[in-house]
Amino acid sequence: MKMDYLNHPYSSQRMTTFAKNGMVATSQPLAAQAGLDIMKKGGNAIDAAIATAAALTVVEPTSNGIGGDAFALVWVKGELHGLNSSGPSPKNISIEAIKERGHESMPKFGLIPVTVPGIPAAWAALSKRFGKLPLTEVLQPAIEYAEKGYPVSPTLGKFWKGAYNAYKKLCTGDEYQGWFDTFAPDGRPPEIGEMWSSEGHASTLRAIAETNAESFYRGELAEKISAFSKEHNGFITAEDLAAYEPEWVDPISVNYRGYDVWEIPPNGQGLVALMALNTLKGFELNEKESVDTYHKQIEAMKLAFADGKKYITDPKEMSTSVAQLLSEEFAEQRRSLIGDEAVTPEPGTPPSGGTVYLATADSEGNMVSFIQSNYMGFGSGVVVPGTGIGLQNRGHDFSLDPTHENALKPGKKTYHTIIPGFLTKDGEAVGPFGVMGGYMQPQGHAQVVMNTVDFHMNPQAALDAARWQWVEGKKIQVEHSFPQHIAQALARKGHQIEVSLDSGGFGRGQIIWRNPETGVLSGGTESRTDGSVASW
Q1: Full strand arrangement of the beta sheet holding 428-436
Q2: Nearest-angstrom CA–CA distance, 265 and 253
Q3: Dihedral sign computed on CA atoms, order 418, 58, 68, 249
Q4: Bias category Polar residues: which stretches (predicted)?
Q5: Angstrom distance (rounded) from CA 446 to CA 274
Q6: Of 222, 244, 345, 378, which alpha carbon lies 20 to 30 A from 215's?
């Protein structure tokens, strides 16, 4: 991408960061610096991504942890590789078993929604295939932060306190005591600026590093997870952990106005962003701050979500292919439904046939788009005692309706919200991008791509621009900085507009673009959190 946005009128509060030798962009300054330090010690962008991700489990535990899932898009030697390190449901779980326990839908907390964690396996797989340094060196910054402690940052402190207050009311059983012992050791959450450490977290990270994650899936850590699950009547077992392997997958894409936008294939929801962009590319959208532009963006996203929620699940269980959902025929069919008024979205019929995000780049041309999560903040509310392992609650997204595409089954991967993005042009890397935050993620991806491609905004401005998000039906939330006159005009088109005073629900993004002519990197980070770009 040429740097044709340098003199563009769109501006932002922060300035885009430029560097040549390396760059790490993520939501926490200590984690970004950890990744850059590893790069300076001889590591590449992949090593830096692993170091940053591991550090984030320590310095931003409100959004991710060792017991969550991960996805990555990795650009190495002119080729894009995809890694799906999301885990399946336990082999002995079933709809009947859940209903026998008195549940009509999958619960949010506790051991029932816990699926096999994929994060440690992702670190090991990335390191083995593309890394230059051993995991014992790459995970050392995270181990030191867990062991020696660090001061809690502002956004982190806010979410930590909110989670504590919620868990105190909702998570009252014995199985939750490990969470309070780990994350509220003094009977309260740590204050902003206060030091927090976790010896258990440090020892777990050390075991993962020394065994290339074998301890987590087939060793001492696996035994601890299994024993705790058995003690509290959970479903996950040592056999589930031992059987797990992450999957290398072929990324999927659509061409949007000359740029290829890449996502991980299902079970991830990146397909939703691609379907929306595939619909939108059929419209002329030359002006960003236009009622027509926002209206078409919103309508396209609503339709894409309706299709995504109907069809996306474990790829082995999908009744409709990615090719069908990204076909020009289907895009035209959905595009034809977008008129002048807001509609309530319904799924179409295709033609037959809590999260942290980080981006890294190095001087060799390697680039990584990486995302990991425990889901819904801290996840299930369950921490295996003495380990710092907070287990994810990803199984909450399963349906207990046996006719639903995403119905719960043993050993099945659920619809997954976390998605890394990547942009290329004419076969060359432009760079990694992402916006974390539940169902905001594909909406953030589409908005960032359009801000970049359609409206020529620099990385920081593309992230800082006011965001909107579709919630349900005709309900749209907009940030308080969203243009009021456009919000009023959208309301006249039938959109139910809600202005949010808190920007915490509009996602947190990172971008790194590379200039193909000079190799210069330009990065943007999220102003809605404690975001940071560490550069060299």
Answers
A1: 17-19, 521-525, 508-514, 428-436, 421-425, 259-263, 252-256
A2: 9
A3: positive
A4: 524-536
A5: 8
A6: 378
Do 432 and 304 lie in a common domain? yes
Rg (CA), the chain: 22
pLDDT in tens, the chain (536 residues): 454 544 444 445 578 999 999 999 999 999 999 999 999 999 999 999 999 999 999 999 999 999 999 999 999 999 999 999 999 999 999 999 999 999 999 999 999 999 999 999 999 999 999 999 999 999 999 999 999 999 999 999 999 999 999 999 999 999 999 999 999 999 999 999 999 999 999 999 999 999 999 999 999 999 999 999 999 999 999 999 999 999 999 999 999 999 999 999 999 999 999 999 999 999 999 899 999 999 999 999 999 999 999 999 999 999 899 999 999 999 999 999 999 999 998 886 665 437 899 999 999 999 999 999 999 889 999 999 999 999 999 999 999 999 999 999 999 999 999 999 999 999 999 999 999 988 999 999 999 999 999 999 999 999 999 999 999 999 999 999 999 999 999 999 999 999 998 888 899 999 999 999 999 999 999 999 889 999 99
CA distance 229 to 531: 35
Query: Which residue type sits at 71?
Result: F
Q: Is position 3 within any domain?
A: no
3-class DSSP state of 248? strand
Torsion of CA 183, 184, 185, 190, to 10 degrees: 90
Give the single-character DSSP code of 14. S
Distance, in Å, from the CA atom of 28 to the CA atom of 391, rounded to the nearest integer, reads 21
Other beta carbons within 10 angstroms of residue 43's beta carbon come to 25
Per the CB < 8 A criterion, the answer to whether 262 and 251 are in contact is yes
Does residue 407 fall inside a structural domain?
no
Domain of 482 in residue numbering reads as 250-355+418-535
CATH number, domain containing residue 470: 3.60.20.40
- The side-by-side arrangement of strands in the sheet containing 475-479 is 468-472, 475-479, 496-500
SS3 472: strand
Kindly state the tokens that stand for 419.
């998605």
Domains in the chain: how many in total?
A: 2
Query: What pairing do the DSSP bridges indicate for beta strands 521-525 and 150-151?
Result: unpaired
Q: Could you tell me if 342 and 375 lie in one domain?
A: no
Gap between the Cα atoms of 172 and 169, Å rounded = 7
Residues 26 and 24: their CA atoms lie apart, in Å, by 7
Q: Which of 204, 355, 387, 414 is catalytic?
A: 355
The residue with tokens 């993520």 is: 26
| Angle, vertex CA 46, rays to CA 271 and CA 212, nearest 5 | 100
Element housing 210 (H / E):
helix 199-211
What string of H, E and C letters represents the secondary structure of 296-359? HHHHHHHHHHHHHHHHCCCHHHCCCCHHHHCCHHHHHHHHCCCCCCCCCCCCCCCCCCCEEEEE
Residue 332: CB atoms within 10 Å: 12
Nearest to 448 by CA among 506, 396, 534: 506
